[in-house]
Design brief:
With 326 residues, the chain is mostly beta strands. Helices cover 2% and strands 38% of the residues. It has a five-stranded antiparallel beta sheet with strand order 6-7-4-10-11, with no helix packed on it. Strands 15, 16, 18, 19 and 20 form a five-stranded antiparallel beta sheet that branches. A four-stranded antiparallel beta sheet has the order 1-3-8-5, with no helix packed on it. The N terminus and C terminus are likely disordered.
């Protein structure tokens, strides 16, 4: 709870008349609790964004809400809220969405003012349900702002003649990709049979942190850089590679990859290969597994294409990508 000092005289709206015949009886000594209204106040932004920096998309509108409650010991006669727009916000897109009580709105430059005159806001002790008030507005960031632009906002709330109380400040930071994404590619070093690999982060999340897990037998076993290179797997076999990506307090869905070290890893279902049919001058184009055609099985030699290595297939292999003559 925020506390403020209050001058009891400021709470008295009655002053001695100019023609008072006996001014000596206008003062006396009395000890009592001050009964002026006061408020801790609150400020929220939607969306709050990702992490402490409040990462949001560049074109994301921001909706601000100022909430106040009279936690004093007497009703508040007037409440005034003042709020200045951050320079990164586009004033021409400002929308005043409403408030909990009747108000007068003024805009002076980039400063907005809501005046709740004669609101007579009850104190929470006497009427908690009606001791609250709020206002809401929406505004867009300026177009073309660079990634990393920070937008802050803070309001001042005045209760009667009391000094203003500052709300907590909200913070948002612009980025082209506010939600973290975990994705990557793997490239084996030529001739290493996947014992040495380079990893490249492809998620595109600006400002993210990374945690790679290559397994206990890898060198290194883990990494926190975006694009680890020269990662060595000494032993053959399947290696489960995982990547965790975090942006502020937001975690991406982890990405994983099963790496076959020591043997080429070929996806027969995805590749398209041309096979030559000896003696007939025709070729067969393949796209998905099916039975070898009778005229091909056991008679076909594989014609290598540039950059393509023929898969190692056992004699018992009877399924290859589906084929059609071309």
């Amino acid at each position: 709870m925020l506390g403020i000092s209050i001058d009891p005289l400021e709470c008295d709206r009655n002053h001695p008349a100019a023609a008072d015949r006996n001014p000596s009886n206008n003062s006396s000594t009395h000890q009592a609790y001050t009964r002026c209204s006061f408020d801790p106040n609150d400020k929220q932004v939607s969306p709050p964004g990702c992490g402490p920096a409040g990462w949001i998309s560049n074109n994301q509108p921001l909706t601000y809400t100022v909430q106040f409650q009279n936690l004093g010991l007497a009703p508040a006669f007037d409440v005034v809220v003042r709020d200045s727009l951050d320079p990164a916000l586009d004033l021409s897109t400002l929308q005043i969405l409403g408030a909990s009580h009747k108000y007068v709105y003024e805009l002076n430059g980039r400063e907005m003012t809501w005046t709740f005159a004669d609101i007579y806001l009850p104190d929470a002790a006497d009427d908690e349900a009606n001791s609250h008030g709020s206002l809401t507005f929406r505004v867009w960031p300026l177009a073309g702002l660079p990634n990393g632009t920070t937008i802050t906002n803070q309001a001042r709330v005045f209760f009667d003649n009391n000094p203003p109380v500052l709300t907590p400040a909200t913070t948002n930071t612009l980025t082209s990709d506010p939600q973290p994404v975990a994705s990557f590619t793997v490239a084996a070093r030529p001739g290493s049979a996947a014992h040495t690999n380079d990893f490249t982060y492809t998620g595109g999340t600006v400002g993210a942190t990374f945690l790679w897990n290559f397994g206990p037998d890898a060198v290194p076993p883990s990494s926190t850089v975006a694009n680890p290179t020269g990662v060595v797997f000494p032993a053959d076999g399947l290696k489960n590679i995982s990547l965790q990506v975090r942006l502020g307090d937001c975690d991406a869905v982890p990405a994983s990859y099963l790496l076959n070290v020591g043997q080429p890893r070929i996806d027969l279902a995805a590749m398209v290969t041309r096979f030559a049919s000896p003696g007939r001058g025709r070729a067969i184009r393949c796209s998905r597994p099916q039975r070898w055609p009778a005229q091909v099985r056991g008679k076909t030699s594989i014609r290598r294409l540039p950059g393509w290595a023929a898969p190692a297939m056992s004699a018992s292999t009877s399924r290859i990508p589906s084929c059609s003559t071309a």
